[in-house]
Design goal:
Order of helices and strands: EHEHEHEHHHEHEEHHEHEEEHEHEEHEH
Structural class: alpha/beta
Radius of gyration: 28 Å
Strand content: 15-25%
Helix content: 25-40%
Number of helices: 14
Oligomer: single chain
C-alpha cells in the first residue's frame, strides 16, 4: 500500500487538550484506546485546557516545550494528538519538537491500514490516506527544483513538489475508477437480492460496541472480533433465518466514531452503501459504556450524513450481562419493537431480536392447511426447504396434507414458481387435522 505504515511498537507521547463544550471536544479515554488499537506504546499523556486553538502550534508555546521535554525524556518515536491538526500546525510542531507528529485523523487511518483485508478495503484505505497526505506534501522536501533535461526542456523544470502532487492526483484518479468498478459489482449483488425480495439488515453502531460478536453469534460466521476499536473494516454478508420470515441478509459494517473524518466517510462510500441500501438497521449499543448516550448521538450523526436516518432502526443494547439485567424487548407507542436488550457474548435475547426483525420486515402471515397432489411435489419440497411445515399427513385421495406457517408473499412466490393458482387447493383447516 502506498502509505501503509510499519506495524506498531512506536513509543508515543499522547496529547489531549480540553476545549469548551462544542465541536472541538474529544474524549481522552477513547483516545488512549485508539492508540492501543493502533499498536503503539503510550508512554505518557499530556493534557491541558484552551479556549481556542493556537493558529501556529495548536497548543501554546509553553505546552509545546512540555511536549518536547516529554519526547526527550521518554525517547518517544511519535507524538499523537487527539485532535485534527492543520498541515502547517503539524509542520511547525515537528520543527519545534524534532519528532514525528500525527493527528487524530492520521491515527485512525493508520488503524484502518492495519485492519483492511479485502481488495476493496485496501483501495478505500489508500484513497483516504492519499487524500490526507496530499495537503502535507510540502513536509520534508528541501530540493524544490529538479532538472527534467532534454532538448527544449532545460531549466528549472517541474519541481519535486509538483511531481509528487501530479503523481498523487493520478493515483487518486486510478483508485477512484477501481472503486467505481467495485461499487458497480456490489450494486449488482444488491439488485439480485432485491429481485429475490430478500431483505437486508445492516448492523451499525459505535466502534467496539460488540457488532462483530453479535454477527458471529447470530450467523455462525468467523468475522474477526476483538476488544479493540475498528476490529472490523470490511463489510461481511451472511444469511440469517428468522422465524415466520425465512432468510434475510445480515451485513456487518465498520464501526463509527465521534468526529469521523469526512474524507474517510467519502472514501468508504462503497462499504457504507450496504448501510444505505438496508431495509432495517440494527443499532448496536454498549449499554454498559459511560459515554453511551454520546455514542448513540455520534452514530445518529453519521447515519444522517449518509442520508439513512429515515431507515427503520431497532436499538440493540448489547452487554446486558455487565449490568446484571435480563434480556427484554421494548415497544414504541405504536406497538412496534423499538429496542432489544441482549448479550451477544452469552447469546441471550437472540429470540427477541429475531422477533423484532420479523415484526419490522415481515408481512401478514399465512397459517393454514394445504392439500398437495403428487404432481405438485416441487411445492412440497420448497415448503420444507423454507422450514414452513408444522405438520404433515395424507388424505384418502393420496394427497399430502400440510399445516404451514410462512409469509404470504413467500407463499405466493412459491405458487408462482410452480405455476399453481393461489386458490387452487387451499382448504379450510379441519378440527380433526389439528387434533391428530
Amino acid at each position: 500500500m502506498f502509505f501503509e505504515r510499519a506495524q506498531g511498537g512506536d513509543r508515543a507521547v499522547l496529547v489531549h487538550i480540553d476545549f469548551p463544550e462544542g465541536d472541538d471536544r474529544e474524549d481522552a479515554a477513547e483516545f488512549v484506546e485508539l492508540v492501543s488499537s493502533a499498536g503503539a506504546d503510550p508512554v505518557t499523556l499530556i493534557t491541558g485546557k484552551r479556549s481556542v486553538r493556537h493558529p501556529k502550534l495548536f497548543v501554546g508555546s509553553g505546552k509545546a516545550e512540555e511536549i518536547k521535554a516529554a519526547v526527550k525524556a521518554h525517547e518517544a518515536d511519535v507524538v499523537l494528538f487527539n485532535h485534527a491538526l492543520s498541515p502547517s500546525q503539524e509542520r511547525n510542531l515537528e520543527r519545534l519538537i524534532e519528532c514525528r507528529v500525527l493527528d487524530r485523523t492520521g491515527l485512525i487511518l493508520d488503524i484502518f491500514a492495519q485492519r483492511a483485508r479485502t481488495h476493496a478495503g485496501k483501495l478505500q484505505v489508500e484513497l483516504a490516506q492519499l487524500q490526507y497526505q496530499s495537503t502535507r506534501l510540502v513536509r520534508g522536501w528541501t530540493h524544490l527544483e529538479r532538472q527534467k533535461g532534454g532538448i527544449g526542456l532545460r531549466g528549472p523544470g517541474e519541481t519535486q513538489l509538483e511531481t509528487d502532487r501530479r503523481l498523487l492526483r493520478e493515483r487518486i484518479g486510478s483508485i477512484q475508477k477501481r472503486l467505481e468498478k467495485v461499487e458497480r459489482t456490489r450494486d449488482q449483488g444488491r439488485r439480485a437480492r432485491q429481485r429475490s425480495d430478500t431483505p437486508t439488515v445492516a448492523i451499525v453502531g459505535y466502534t467496539n460496541a460488540g457488532k462483530s460478536t453479535l454477527f458471529n453469534a447470530l450467523t455462525d460466521a468467523d468475522v474477526y472480533a476483538a476488544d479493540q476499536m475498528f476490529a472490523t473494516l470490511d463489510p461481511t454478508l451472511r444469511k440469517l433465518k428468522v422465524d415466520d420470515m425465512g432468510e434475510v441478509i445480515l451485513a456487518d459494517t465498520v464501526g463509527f466514531i465521534r468526529h469521523l473524518p469526512h474524507k474517510l466517510v467519502e472514501a468508504f462510500k462503497a462499504t457504507l452503501q450496504e448501510t444505505a441500501e438496508a431495509d432495517l438497521l440494527l443499532h448496536v449499543i454498549d449499554c454498559a459504556a459511560e459515554e453511551r448516550d454520546a455514542n448513540i448521538e455520534q452514530v445518529n450523526e453519521v447515519l444522517s450524513e449518509l442520508a439513512v436516518d429515515e431507515t427503520p432502526t431497532v436499538l440493540v443494547f448489547n452487554k446486558v450481562d455487565l449490568l446484571g439485567k435480563p434480556p427484554q424487548i421494548d415497544y414504541d407507542a405504536e406497538g412496534r419493537p423499538a429496542a432489544v436488550w441482549l448479550s451477544a457474548l452469552d447469546k441471550s435475547g437472540f429470540e427477541l431480536l429475531r422477533k423484532a426483525i420479523a415484526a419490522w420486515l415481515g408481512d401478514e402471515l399465512f397459517i393454514g392447511e394445504v392439500a398437495i397432489p403428487p404432481r405438485w411435489s416441487a411445492l412440497r419440497a420448497q415448503l420444507f426447504a423454507a422450514d414452513a411445515v408444522q405438520k404433515e399427513d395424507y388424505d384418502e385421495s393420496g394427497n399430502t396434507v400440510l399445516r404451514i406457517r410462512l409469509q404470504k408473499k413467500d407463499f405466493q412466490r412459491m405458487l408462482t414458481r410452480c405455476g399453481i393458482a393461489q386458490d387452487a387447493f387451499i382448504a379450510p383447516p379441519t378440527k380433526e387435522f389439528f387434533e391428530r
